[in-house]
Structures
1.
Amino acid sequence: MGEPEIKKTSAIKMVGIKVATSLAADKTSLLWQRFMKLRGGIKNASSKDLYSVQVYGKNFMTGDFDTDSIFEKWAGMSVTDHDTSYKILENLVIPQGLYAVFTHHGTAKKFADTSKYIFENWLPASEYRLANRPHFEVLGSTYKGPENPDSEEHIWIPIEEK
């Protein structure tokens, strides 16, 4: 795993669906199955990229977070503007801010190794600490699915200077 690219992003407007879940009772697969059936109805997508977003809350920031901790998981797409006509899809804004952007290569099962490196090695040794904003992954043209070893996704970790 290499060094991340440090990027400052503008606010990102998203449309998608969400679920309350935990790492132990992971509902990610069901969330994505449902979203993929709905994404064709998004009229104003700003790209074809998919976004997997986690809103962890204060317990994640304070270290009071374990595999049973509940957080909000989103599946969605970025949009040029929020449309209020959707019946099922919801709006989310990822606030502007500084992010460490890592590239994960491999299957979803190997994602835990990438996360371990980010949070146990890179972050403590860096000049940054976690910021209390959503974490997200961008699944673009190089994303080939959760079981494909050649798959690639970009992990955006919210940071601020120590």
Note: The mean pLDDT is 91.
2.
Amino acid sequence: MFKNTKAFSSFSVDDLQKAKKFYSEVLGIEVVDNPMGLIELYIAGSNNIMVYPKPNHEPATYTVLNFPVPNIDEAVDELTKKGVAFEQYGGELKTDEKGIARGNDHGPNIAWFKDPAGNILSVIEEH
């Protein structure tokens, strides 16, 4: 039934204008206003992602978007210069001083950060 559909993702934010500014100006994503009162993130090679306002928004406790990058250190450095703060984790997901969990043999290098609504995003190094 859904084998050939063009599925897309969506998530909520508490302030659409803050989200629009963050996704376009900080992350450099093309953001388009949708007539239904939401915004769409246009990412090359991907389906559009819908971001909608929700008055009683609660931030996702999981990663809602992963951005593959060729060099995670460069991506983290660039985003840090733009004011993005990376999450610090211990345990299995232990991050270094930059906020990068170095996967070594157990997975990819990944760093998590939050959008203005508190949703968790990541940059993940492609192999």
Note: Strands lie at 10-13, 30-34, 38-42, 49-53, 63-69, 100-101, 110-114, 120-125.
